[in-house]
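Technical appendix A lists one of the benchmark inputs used to test multi-chain prediction within the project. The record comprises two sequence entries:
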Amino acid sequence: MKTSGAFRERLREAWIELKENPGRSFLQALGVMLGVASVLGGFSISDSQNRQAQRVFARVGGIDKLNVFPTDTVYDGTPSALQQANLGLRLEDATDGGQVPTAKAVNATSVLKQAKARVRSQFADQQRDITGIGADYVAMNGYDIEQGRGFSSHDFATGAPVAILGAEAASVFFPTGEIVGKPLRIGDVPVTIIGVFAEKNFRFRDGQRNIFAWRNRIVAVPSLLVAARMEGDEYHRLDRVTFRVPDLKQMSDFSKELSTLLTANHRLQQDYRLDDVAKRLERQMSQGDVYNVIFMLSGVLALIGGGMVNVNVQLASLKERVREVGVKMAIGAPGREIFKAFMTEALLLTLLGSAAGYLIGIAFSWIIAKSIGVPLSLAPLSFIWATVMAVVFGFLFALYPAAKASRQSPMEALRYE
Amino acid sequence: MKIIQTRDLTKVYGSNGNAVHALCGIDLDVERGEFVALIGPSGSGKSTLMAILGCLDVPTGGTYALEGRQVEGLSGADLAAIRNEKVGFVFQQYNLLPKATILRNVELPMLYAGVPRRERRQRALELLEKVGIPDKANTLPGALSGGQRQRVAIARALANRPALLLADEPTGALDSKTGQEVLALFRELHAQGNTVLLVTHDPTIAGMAGRRVELRDGLIHEEEELAA
């Protein structure tokens, strides 16, 4: 085999060799198949779960959010005058936040002020959470107006006594379906219904509960209405300010500038907390990596097991093979050529086994994804990992039989009975 | 030109305590185009001598030149190349690859020699025709009779136009009629100019050769020129 294209020739020989010994080849490839299937299946199931989790976050309104929460300034002891005079999180924080140099990266801002109140209509009387919202809250949280209209900037600016109900709240307080323009009492404040949000529905898996059910319970009013007339003080403090920064790379710069601004605004009091959703999510996802490592490990174990089967099959068929090798050596195959032939065979087996393993792995993960009701997602990286590991282990375990076969003396190999 | 020239060839198996002296100093010359029969009782060292002459094994001492090339001290890869190019083996048990087709069995030595595929195929078919089984190219050895298998083995041995055809009891596993046919084929090959060295224990077979060399206890006991 001194000709060019020697590898192709060798590959062809290996293929013939495999075809001539289908049973043995199948057994040898079995380990590779299972290992690849296991790595692939594990990865794609974990990937499918991750994708689904990301989809949840996307439906909640995306991961590209920076939240600002108020915190206590004083945990124990008597607060200082400065601490007492601190103003907390206000609408100004949201508007000023939109002015810092890197605020160009911000494409939406929302504010939130919550309260608990008695809600009464002519049909129902319930204790409810009241969500005072402002700015781009509706869009940022993935709500859609189904009936009526949304809040106008005038509504927000004046704290107009108007409300929009979630689908569940609408059906509880106005079961007849006539709703827009109807009056509702929230605590002591009479408001007018101006719209209804479309129902939000998301099930992590088919047949599971709607994890967004709570979102349909929303009773939304302008945040100023809550702060001014339901709960709160003269400063109209807020419970949350959220900035959306679609370009996650700008997030940390923006968050630094925002922090400086807020500290200045708050008389140098650290009475707020920044919460970077993307970072938090990343941390959560990294817990998923543990599973990936476990899947990878089980794949590696399967490949090692398969490799041992491979070696055993090789050694068991050695009697037959030794004579073959002896004959080949007698008619002029050098040991090096025998070694290469064995390794090429192993490579081919590994690749074929991998291909079969892909099919098995995809089939397995499809069945599992189907049974837990998650859409299947296949990570391209898992194919690469699975193949690389299969080739590495395939080669490692082929070395011993190949070396053993190629180092025989032709005379002994021929006499081998 | 001498195809085989050995001087004081020795082969010892085992070490000091229980060493077995299989060959004790063989001086053998074979000219190109000769038909030599190597005979001797079992244990006389003829298989050992044949293995060394075929470069399957290396001598313990002495020198051996195959077609003018000294082979003692050559590496395994060099010996493999010599076996491939200069020696054609025919064994008693045929030693065909059982799962490869007849055509592939004959092609294999040419594959190791780096002969291109098309040429390989063509020559293999020619050889099969030459040994009298042109229509069996795509069958497996298992489907052939003993005589046919031995013909395949001879075709394979001839693949790279070897300087020396080595046959170890080629008729040992055949009935006398097919054995005669195979021997006739060897004579024909010899008549075409091939150098043949045939190992046998059967004096009548040896009688067909041009020269008879008898081994006994690792030494050449008797050499006799015969009328070919």
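Residues 259 and 273 of chain A are 9 Å apart (CA to CA). Chain A has 14 helices and ten strands. Comparable benchmark entries are summarised in Table A2.
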